[in-house]
From TrEMBL:
Keywords: ATP-binding, Nucleotide-binding
Family note: Belongs to the KTI12 family.
Protein species of origin: Clunio marinus
InterPro entries for the chain: KTI12/PSTK, P-loop_NTPase
UniProt-listed Pfam families: KTI12
GO BP: regulation of transcription by RNA polymerase II; tRNA modification
Name of the featured protein: Protein KTI12 homolog
GO molecular function annotation: ATP binding
Length: 283
């Protein structure tokens, strides 16, 4: 019945940790353990890993499968480990609500790692189909929403770095010696950010850059209207896609550091356009 959610940036050791947990719970505690692996789901979808994370609709599809496959395996006795990035706060909240309504206990394991180290792991992967390209790797780091132990849906939270031992007994106690939370508080205090905020912001800004680039190709310069923005973009003749993408990444980086003041997504296209206009006028 219990559920363990692995959380981590690319190449932070989630799959190895999942295997260690499986081994422990099977041999020391005699449990049946199911690992539901995002990598496996991607493999079966026959879409490459990089393609999945560069296209938000594909990523959503994989995430939906990961969630439904995991929840389907929840039963009275077995342990389910969700081995995936699970980097979106709103997504973890959804899983929490579902596992709670199945009367399941759960805990979160954050595989913490430095960006340099994870890039090194990434580059040294044996299976070359699993290597992230730099852009996707950076984008996933950017969108990553760290679990926080004071969020009910991330709690109890265990963080491990590559050098740490997993606190096996504490994890066991957290999920087997504890009563599941009562089902009727599940909707109190949902995440205040609209769910999937950074993920959606990434998609929105990507669409706008695509629109501007397409307009440039058709020869448009000056004021260009982009979908869902109340303001137009002033583009000059010598701007190119890689410059726009760099601005987009800076904007996402800035947004991530100011999440507490983030507004709603409806205004996001206009705010991004205003940002672009400011940066473009300074070039
Ligand atoms: C993203 O994936 C969807 C569904 O597979 C596809 O329809 C769409 O064209 C893709 N978008 C891009 C930008 O590749
Ligand atoms: C809901 O929560 C309240 C207070 O926490 C409790 O008294 C009540 O029994 C709960 N109801 C159900 C159906 O669990
Ligand atoms: C884009 O423009 C910048 C600045 O003008 C230039 O350094 C860069 O090489 C250009 N990139 C491409 C792909 O054309
Ligand atoms: C994001 O912003 C921080 C602080 O402003 C900076 O240190 C970091 O290098 C930026 N990262 C990227 C990828 O631009």
């Amino acid at each position: 019945m219990p559920l363990i959610i692995m959380v981590g940036c690319p190449s932070s050791g989630k799959s190895s940790r999942s295997q260690e947990l499986k081994e422990f719970f099977e041999t020391s505690k005699g449990k049946v353990v199911h690992i539901v692996s995002e990598n496996e789901i991607i493999k079966n979808s026959e879409i490459s890993k990089n393609e999945v994370y560069e296209n938000s609709s594909k990523e959503k599809m994989i995430r939906a499968d990961l969630k439904s496959n995991s929840l389907r395996k929840l039963n009275k006795n077995d342990l389910v480990i969700i081995d995936g990035g699970n980097y979106i706060k709103g997504y973890r909240y959804e899983i929490y609500c579902a596992s709670k309504s199945a009367r399941s206990t759960q805990c979160t394991i954050h595989c913490a790692v430095t960006r340099e180290k994870s890039w090194e792991f990434n580059e040294n992967r044996k299976d070359k189909n699993e290597v992230y390209v730099r852009d996707i790797f950076d984008a996933l780091w950017m969108r990553f929403e760290e679990p926080i132990s004071t969020n009910r849906w991330d709690s109890p939270l265990f963080a491990v770095t590559p050098d740490d031992q997993l606190p096996f007994e504490d994890i066991y106690n957290a999920i087997y010696e504890k009563k599941p939370p009562s089902a009727n508080q599940s909707t109190q205090n949902p995440p205040t950010q609209s769910t999937n905020y950074l993920f959606e912001l990434d998609r929105i800004t990507q669409d706008i850059v695509t629109e501007i680039t397409a307009a440039r190709k058709l020869g448009s310069i000056g004021s260009v209207k982009v979908k869902d923005s109340t303001e137009t973009v002033s583009i000059s003749s010598d701007i190119n896609a890689s410059q726009l993408n760099r601005m987009r990444r800076q904007y996402l980086n800035y947004s991530k550091q100011h999440l507490d003041t983030a507004g709603d997504l409806v205004k996001a296209p206009t705010l991004f356009v205003q940002y672009l206009n400011t940066v473009l006028s300074d070039l």
